[in-house]
Write a structure and sequence with these properties.
Elements: H1 14-24, E1 42-43, H2 45-49, E2 57-60, H3 70-83, E3 89-92, E4 114-119, H4 126-133, E5 138-141, H5 144-155, E6 160-163, E7 189-194, E8 197-203, E9 209-213, E10 216-217, E11 223-224, H6 234-243, E12 247-252, E13 254-255, E14 266-268, E15 275-278, H7 313-322, E16 330-333, H8 340-347, E17 355-357, E18 362-363, E19 366-367, E20 376-377, E21 381-382, H9 385-393, E22 399-403, E23 406-407, E24 413-414, H10 428-434, E25 437-441, E26 445-446, E27 450-454, E28 457-462, E29 466-467, H11 480-485, E30 489-493, E31 497-502, E32 505-511, H12 517-520, E33 536-537, E34 563-566, E35 571-575, E36 580-581, H13 584-600, E37 608-613, E38 618-619, H14 624-638, E39 639-645, H15 649-656, E40 666-667, H16 669-678, H17 685-695, E41 704-705, H18 706-717
Helix pairs in contact: 5-6, 5-9, 7-8, 13-14, 16-17
Length: 718
Amino acid sequence: PEPGFAHTMLRQSWKAASRVSALRVSKVHFIQVRHGSTRHKVMSADDAVHLIQSGDTVTVGGFVTQNSPEEILSALSRRYKATQKPSGLTVVFGGGPGDWKDKGMNHFAHEGMTKRAIGGHYGQAPQLGAMAQANKIEAYNLPLGSISRMIRAAAGKLPGHITTVGYGTMADPKHGGGKINTVTKEDLVEEIEVLGKKYLIYKAVPINVAIIRGTTADPMGNITMERESLYVDNLIQAMAARASGGIVLVQVERIATENSLRPREVKIPGTLVDGVVVASPENHWMSYITEYNPGFTSEIKTPVSLSTMEMDERKIIARRGLLEVVPNQVVNLGIGMAEGVALVAEEEKILNYFTLTTEPGVHGGVGASGHDFGPAKNYDAILDMNQQFDFYNGGGLDVCFLGMAQVTATGDVNVTRVGPALKGPGGFIDISQSTKRVNLVGTFTTGGLEIAVEDGKLVIKKEGSIRKFVKSIPEITFSGSNAVSRNQMVHYITERCVFALTPEGLELIEIAPGIDMQTQILDLMEFKPVIKGTPRLMDARIFGPSRMKLLESLYSLDMSTRLNYNAESKTLYIDLHGVSITTPDVVTDIITAIDGFFTKNPKLAKKVDVFVNYDGFDCREELVKDFTEKAKQLENKYYGTVRRISSAGFARHKLADSMQMSLQKSYNTNEVYDLLKSMGLSVSRQTVSTLCARFDTDGQKGVISSEELASIVEAIKA
């Protein structure tokens, strides 16, 4: 053995140890028992990386700058520079990690060391990205959620991850299947048919080595993560290596005595772990930016004081974006321009009215920004990253805000091939293809754009030199035509105008006050958008010097704006969309307002047909009985036929079960038209027919479900 080499028993059975026996002994790295036990697994970083063989497939944990096993990665880089081994590695990673310089995945950027890279984002690893662009390695750029589940598939010895995510984008085999360069030949993404429906399969890749990290380990390799900002995919990466007959190396901060860890705090069981490396403090910062933040681990609840944004293009875009959010929604904010939505929400005092999430697993709280993106303070819960993407792909998000670099006439967006450096989709494709309402945010032009707001009007002081609304793009990260086929509601929000995605293409629907449509919008686009009539002005509050007072308006219970009577159809529309009944006073306000409406209008028919929108509605359990009884009294006193809609499963069940209120199951086109007119919405029968055809997704032609009707109402309001 080499001097000081004291390796532990890597497997408890000869079967599991066979790979070690066959591959490691030739390198004179003998298995040795420590302290008379076959279960002690602590070793140095240099010893650990000697277990990695040339040709291995290595998966690395971490997300952006968070949770990077830097001690092990730097030791691996030193070994290669000294010995030129291991060589020909395949590296599999999701969201990094890296520091935009020379750490993290950049440690694999040595010619000959890496043969192939399969990643979801190369932005933090520019050296590795440069090798991919220079054809020095085979390389793939795939959706982060799909890479996460490719690894999970390997953990279960499945052929791959089957999904519809990626269709129409750069991950689609028709558009290159995520291949970055010309030396990359193998197809990792293929189209298959399952039960008569077509899907994409992202093929599982067997894992020989998992390099991950935790906080505390015991000598047997049990790992806890109490001082880590995220769980990311550590567990399934370890499981994938174990299932493939590989090894698992874990970097930790400290060692506990045997049998001293609380079992329920162990995130990675020792049965999966082969080597434990105690890192030096400088190589075990929480992220490459932050040494340690107890707020990110929920060790403490911390005061959240978000900075107030200056009145610039970022704030204008964030303010307009925030108008797309209603109470009780689940929201994802991308990195960059989209982060401003949270800052404006805090300024408007409405941040607690909806739930923010981030793709590595966080639910609730306030997300970290900039290069610390990923974790959050004061959050409610945290999942593993692959579980978060299950939640996203299952439709868990109500609304998202993502960046846009280039946009075409059909609504396609490119954010992956911009500028000289290789980036990647990260969670963009998974999120944008699975969210009900998608908001793509960014400035109208870039490259030196300077704006000002004067007397409530937008003034372009200096136009950007680079156009963003273009005829064609080098890579599709978001497919407009696919979004139309999925009935998604998509807005493209800039500082001077807003576009909506329609079956005919991009439609100009809003213009900022002070902007000339021809010279400052149309003349700066490489295509002509759809224009129907005169686009409306963007909300004047966006350009005001004070708060928009969303708490007092959009988020208030002003019932005078929520009651609308249509004399022609003799129908009263009651809009309880987004209402949350949290106190007895709210119950009183609603009932009093409705009763007052009838009292003030004694000439109404004895029994009035009523249509109630319960979409996004919620009621605390202890107030359900009070609200139900009083609502029933109103129904018996004033209502004729009552129809209710809600697209939210929770509200539907609560209405049907706890509140004993039935929801109308279906509507024909004429009924939809009548209901929309009763709400005071100006629509033609042709528009209604078009929308019914677009949102009729269950195959029952001409029959619109309650959920589909709620989507139609939302689309017309938008």
